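Q: I have 419 residues here and want to know how they pack in 3D. Can you give me a structure?
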Amino acid sequence: MIDRSLIRALAISATLVASALLAGCDGEDASLAANAKANQPVSPKLIAAMTEKDMDLQSPILIRLFKQEAEVEVWKQDRSGKFAVLKTYPICRWSGDLGPKVREGDRQAPEGFYAISPAQMNPQSAYYLSFNTGYPNAYDKALGHTGSQLMVHGDCSSRGCYAMTDEQIAEIYSLGRESFFGGQKSFQFQAYPFRMTPINMAKHRNNPNMAFWKMIKEGYDHFEVTRQEPKVDFCEKKYVFDAAKPPGATRDLMFDAAAKCPAYVIPDDVADAVRQKQEADQAETAKLIAKGTPVAKLNTGIDGGMNLIFAARVPGGNTGLSEGGDGQALALSGFSKAPGTIPSTVNPPRMPGSDDAAVAAAAAPAAVAAPAPAAAPAPTTRVASAPSAASEVSSGRSRNFLSAPLLERVLEMTCLPLI
């Protein structure tokens, strides 16, 4: 008898190749099977980590991202059915400020909950490999938020995106690909301004985005207490997590982000655990505020952040709005091995009034921290991805033929740094 997982994998593969062929009308090569970058097998180290943590190669994944900490966590379902952290990746670069994306051209990287399907995986990215975050979701659209093509990609360059090294995005891409072949229809991408801890809530208590952050913290807390992917719905222009039909209800719940919420309940065990966590968090936050925890500065003029491990290796490097960029910490981080290649064109966060020309001149020599990932000589792993037609254009294309406003929009859509 043919294994059912193999049948699912073949069905998904056929669907993706068909989508790729349809998307290939713009002249791009739609032959995914020949794309060595997207076809790299999961690394032996990650396989060993999965074995140690009782995880299967093709079990579901979930990704959490934190701007302030400049970290991406890849979680994977173990054989108990719960999610556990497989690996944490430092972010090379993110742009904008803490807070959600509101409009196209605001340089903001999205915050919230998004679903990543195989069609959002881009093996032909101009930035090595990428996946589309899915912004705007139904909540964003209900509020009239605009923007498109917001990616997580390689090349360490960001303008409204989250940028990793090529080596990092290759690993993350391979994990997503394998989860799709295991039957996962989409993986959840949770993007936060910071870890939703009492100390961070206290520090940012005066931020105008606090109401939004408290709303998405609800989903953060659901995941923290259950270690299960929270079910996400939208109504009345807000997020709803783990909604279920009330007792005795016969009709399925129907949600509309801009409409009134239907009658729903949250399972008692989940609701009780979340309530206990939130009461403890709120009590601790109140204590920290009473002790005089300093309030984080607003409107600093700093554009985004960079993990300490990368900032230590970039001429004029700065962690920006991310943590840990002062004094000895930055110097000591230079002794740690960087998780991938740092391009010479990397554009670190700038402090207000900094001399960009001087920093650019200092960064002229290539700052390579590790060899680039080698392309697989012969594909050994199936590809679960489909190119996003014309979603990312190569650096420099049409730069001299666009008006300033249009250039601003194109640069955001392609996540290019403004040079």
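Q: Anything worth noting?
A: The first strand starts at residue 61 and ends at 66. The radius of gyration is 22 Å.
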